[in-house]
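pasting for the record
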Amino acid sequence: MKSYKVTLKRSLIGSTQGQKDTIRCLGLRKIGDSVVVKDHPAQKGQIFKMQQWLDVQAQ
């Protein structure tokens, strides 16, 4: 199954609570944190919603 490595590259200061919750659901906490997420429609939607804060690499 395909997966993505997602890294938080920007601060969440000034973002809405919903945006902060989305980042937390992806498993990211602070700048520079990376997680590997599976290719699933829900995960893709979260990544798409927060793409300006994330660096995404295919695995």
